[in-house]
Amino acid sequence: MLPQGATPRQIEMEGGMQKRTIWIILVIVLVAAAIFGFSRWNASRKASSAAPQTSTVQRGDLQAIVGTSGTVRAAQSMDLTFGIAGTVVEILVAEGDKVTAGQPLARLDTTTLEAQVASAELSLRLAEKNLADLKSPPTKTEIAQAEAALASAKAAYEAAKAKPVEWQIAQAEAALEKARKTLQEAQAAYDAVSWRPNIAMLPQAAQLQQATEAYQTALDNYRIAMASVSDAPIKSAYAQMLQAQDAYDKLMAGPTEEELLSAEAQVTQAKLALDTARKNLDSATLKAPFDGTITAINIITGQTVAANTVAMSIADLDHLQIQANLPEVDAVQVKVGQRAQITLDAISTQTISGQVTKIALIGTVTQGVVNYPVTINLDPTDLPVKPGMTASINIIVDERKNVLMVPNRAIRSLGRNQGYYVEVMVEGQIIQLPVTIGLSNGTMTEVTGTGLREGDTVVVSTTTTTSGRIPGVGGIVGGPMGPF
Description:
Shape: elongated
Strand content: 25-35%
CATH class of the domain at 53-58 and 401-461: Mainly Beta
Radius of gyration: 57 Å
CATH architecture of the domain at 53-58 and 401-461: Beta Barrel
CATH topology of the domain at 53-58 and 401-461: conserved putative lor/sdh protein from methanococcus maripaludis s2 fold
Mean pLDDT: 85
Distance between the termini: 83 Å
Helix content: 40-55%
Low-confidence stretches: 463-469, 471-484
Number of strands: 21
Number of helices: 8
Strand order of the largest sheet: 2-11-15-13-12-16
Structural class: alpha+beta
C-alpha cells in the first residue's frame, strides 16, 4: 500500500510489481500440476507393466461356425387329389393319423369305373383275336367252307341266268357274237391290203364299213334285249358270286400289310383304353404317397369332388428339415454333410443337431443381395418340434479336436509374413515363444509351438494392446463362436 502523498511514478511502479507477482504464482502452480500429472502417469505405467493382463493356454475342441436362421418344415408334404371326378363313399383316416406309403385313405364310388374296365377288357380280347386270326394260315375247314361258298354262289348265278328270259338274252348274245366275228374278219382283210395306195377303192374297205355298222346294230339290239327284261336276280347273283370269289382269294392269299397294321393298331388302342380304365379305377382309392401324418381332411362322405379337389394333406413329421439362406461369403464355406446345431425360438433352452443335405447351385438375388438356399435335416428328437417354428442355426464348417488354444489377443505378429509369437509368464518373467497358428473361431485360436503347454500363462494385454483380429489366421467369422 502506498503512503499518503505518493507521486504518480511511485504508484505506477507499485502496480507493475503486483502483476509480476501474480504471473510468478501462476507459473509455479502450472509447473506443480505438470509434475503431479507426470508422476501419476508414470506410476500408472509402472503398475501396468508390473501387472499385465493374462490368460491360460487351454486344450480342447475348437469349432468355426457359420450362423444363419430359417424355418422348420416337413421333409415331405403334399396336397392329395383323386385325379378323377366322383362321389366320396368312404373316408378311412382322421386328421393326425400316421399312415404308411400305399395305405388307402378314402374311396369314390366305382360302379361306372368297374363297368368301363370290363368293357375295355372285352374290346382288347376281340382285337387280339382278330389280329391272331389274321396272322394264322387258313385251316382246311376254312378253305373248304370258302370253296363251298364260292361254288354255291356260282351255281346260283348260273341258275339265275337259266330263267325263261334266257332265250331272249341268248339270241341277242348270239347275234352280237356273230357280228363281232364278221367285224374281226373284215378288219383282218382290210389290214392285209391297207398298204395299197388305193385302199379306199378296194372291196375290203367297203366290207369293213358294212361289218362295223352291222356290229353296232347287233350291240344296240343286245342292249335293248337286256333292258327289256328284269335282270335284278342275275345281277344280285353275280354280285354274290364276286364276293364269294373275293373272300376265297383273300383267304388263300393271306392278310395284306395294311390289314395287319390296322389290326395291330386296334390292339394297341384297346390296351391303352384298358390301361386308362384301370388307372381311373385305381384313382378312385386315395392312397398315401409316402409314410407320414394326415394334417388335413377337406372332404366328407357323399360329397362330389372334381379331379383337382384337394381331398387331404399329408406331411412327413418324423423327418423335419430347415431351409435357410446363406450370403455368398458364407455359402462357399458350407458343404453337404457338415453338422449343425439348431436352437428353436419356441424351445430356446434345448439344442437340436442336424446335417447339411443340400446347397443350391444357383443363388437367388433379392434387392441386389445374393443368397444360396441351404437345407438342413434335423436329427431325430423327442422335443416337440413342429413345422413353421423359427430356428437359429450354427453350421460347423471346421473343427479341431484336442488342440492347444489361446485368446486371439494373446497372439502377436513379428511383422508382415514374419510369423507370430506369444508372451509366456515364467517365474515372473515374460518370455516370447514363436507359434504357428491354425483354426480360429473369432475368440480363440489354435496354436502350436515348441515349449508351449496346456496351463501356461500368456499375456493378453499390455500398455500396447493388440487387435482381436489376426491377419492370416485360418478361421471363419460367421456368428458368435467359441470353444464348444
